[in-house]
Amino acid sequence: MVQRILNPRLDYSFFLFGARGTGKSTLLTEVFRNTPHLYINLLEPEEFQTLSLDPQSLIRRTDMLPNNTKWVVIDEVQKIPKLLDAVHRQMEAKGLLFALTGSSSRKLKTGGANLLAGRAVVYNLYPFTASELGNTFSLDSALNWGTLPILQRAQSDATRRKILQAYAHSYLREEIQQEQIVRKLEPFHRFLAVAAQMNGQIINFSAIARDCGVNERTVRTYFEILEDTLVGFLLQPFHESIRKRQRENPKFYFFDPGIVRALSQTLTVPVVSGSYEYGRMFESFIIHEIHRLARYQDLDWTLSYLRTKDGAEIDLILDRPGHPRALIEIKSAARVTPDDLTQLKRFLPEFKNVESYCLSNDPRPQRFGEIQAVPWKQGLKKLGLN
User: Fold this and answer.
1) Contact 349, 319 (CB under 8 A)
2) What is the C-alpha separation between 98 and 13, in angstroms, rounded?
3) What is the mean pLDDT of residues 193-199?
4) Rounded to whole angstroms, what are the CA distances from 247 to 201, 226, 238, 257, 366?
5) Whole domain around residue 154: which residue ranges?
6) Which residue, 42, 107, 103, 111, is CA-closest to 75?
7) What is the structure's pLDDT at 366?
8) CA separation for the pair 291, 259 (Å, rounded)
9) Residue 116: is its pLDDT beyond 90?
10) Are residues 148 and 243 in the same domain?
11) Residues 48 and 138 in one domain
């Protein structure tokens, strides 16, 4: 069994959000293995029907818990937002603690659900990181198929392909259609395919709107949905001025390479070292590793990118409170040369008190002036990520 980095504390109630298939239920099974608790799974039809018809029955049920049972685990709580009123009541009246999982907080927010007013902290769970997989991690496998826990038992590429195709379909059907997050499914279906093809690129909202047959405001809402359901995140453009930063368009990164390839229907085309697609997927992978590890370690970092009007770019900028800002170039090459660092060198005089890195597949650490070119795993550690 893979040991997850995220380890929720059992002294306070919490929400655990994560996209489907990231292992929320498995994680909580392990967390509560030696802790008495009541487990309620809203994916079970009978449980769902009972509690959706009578959310207050949760109060009567938890009133009967033994004195040594202080925890209640509710899986997929967003399916019955009204349950949170009963949860709130039992927190106050009985001192019970709740672990509440869901694949999205969006339905809770948009439905005006009781979000417990600070009585529960929030954790997010992502696909496996390289450090979680340890010796079983394969970069080629991660770039081709991703690291979703549901793939770990697959024994062949054909099976992995089927799982990812089914995942993309079930996400559309269950997460979007059944939860009624969007009213018209077909434009959103087209949007997912277009967005997947533009993974890691600066978003052109108006062009995507034309391709999908919707207006620009709808496209912006679609990206919000993907963020709220943890299917990806927006990487904002860097600028010292927040006001000016808001004038630029962000990049969007889907949460897993396998899902990107499933949505863009490229699973049958291998991601081969040295290809353009390999470089694109490698950059996305490194950015996700940094994003996930920083979140798991509760680091209050801000991630951004910088691109000038003439196309010069810094792949990733990390603002790390208490530490120098980090400028990061990401290269998939197995050998880093001075020519690979031309753009990063160009920007260095414009920043004060910074550290600069090139993270790559080159196994040999090197220093090019102020720039440390290191293997990507070593680079993550240098940044302070475990």
Assistant:
1) no
2) 5
3) 93
4) 17, 21, 11, 29, 37
5) 130-230+239-276
6) 42
7) 95
8) 18
9) no
10) yes
11) no
